[in-house]
Design a protein that fits this description.
CATH class: Alpha Beta
Helix content: 25-40%
Number of strands: 7
CATH superfamily: Vaccinia Virus protein VP39
Largest sheet: 7 strands, mixed
Order of helices and strands: HEHEHEEHEHEHHHE
Strand order of the largest sheet: 3-2-1-4-5-7-6
CATH architecture: 3-Layer(aba) Sandwich
Structural class: alpha/beta
Number of domains: 1
Number of helices: 8
Shape: globular
CATH topology: Rossmann fold
């Protein structure tokens, strides 16, 4: 799924730490990639962590890198093991993480709804992704509300995206080279910073090639009432 991590693993790890979840809480990361963020969270906070991704190559890397961390951290192939979460899905997780996932989803609204259903009442959805630079992810906020999630914090991390892009350009020569070198064939690419084209002469065309912004939003699932 997503393949960029502006702010590094520290960004999402810090967000999880700020929730003050009880030890042994259950966390699900959608689009976990090589599992670095989830492994860091499992090690630091002692949570039971499950990562899913549809790239077999990324999951292979995740298992090889993080196997010594034990049974509290596991990785599931979203395609080959599509039923693996069935017995433990609905209302069973204290938090879900979606980092650069919705922007590569063919149906962000359905994707959010599917995974929001896996949260316990009072559980948290931590979502970082691209948005219009200088704007708010109003579509996401509306979709989250429809799925029983209320926004509790929204932070602009566009500076982290810019730093990430500069770092990768310095390391690889271009962002295209970075994606080609790190993203397995068939895996989703969270492309950003599109290059202007010769036809980009109108204000609308220029806006389409303007670099995006980046945000981290934390939502909480509404408690059940009786």
């Amino acid at each position: 799924m997503g393949c960029i991590s502006p702010g590094g693993t520290e960004l999402m790890e810090g967000a999880v730490g700020g929730l003050n979840l009880a030890e042994n809480s259950r966390i699900l990361e959608i689009g976990c990639g090589e599992g670095d963020t989830l492994a860091r969270i499992a090690e630091k906070y002692g949570h039971e962590c499950i990562g899913i991704d549809k790239s077999g190559e990324l999951l292979k890397r995740a298992r090889e890198k993080h196997a010594p961390r034990g049974p509290r951290l596991k990785f599931i192939d979203a395609l080959a093991d599509s039923d693996a979460l069935a017995p433990e899905s609905a209302g069973q997780f204290d938090a879900i993480i979606m980092e650069c996932v919705l922007s590569v989803s063919g149906d962000p609204k359905a994707t959010l709804g599917e995974y929001a259903a896996m949260l316990k009442p009072g559980g948290y959805a931590l979502i970082s992704d691209l948005c219009k630079r200088g704007g708010r992810p109003d579509g996401l906020i509306g979709n989250a509300r429809e799925n029983g999630l209320r926004l509790i914090s929204l932070d602009d991390h566009t500076a982290d995206l810019d730093s990430f892009a500069i770092q990768k350009i310095m390391e690889y020569g271009s962002l295209e080279n970075y994606f080609n070198a790190t993203v397995p064939k068939g895996a989703d690419r969270c492309d950003f910073f599109p290059a202007p084209t010769q036809s980009a002469t109108s204000e609308e065309a220029r806006e389409r090639t303007r670099p995006p912004g980046y945000f981290l939003a934390v939502f909480q699932k509404c408690q059940l009432t009786v």
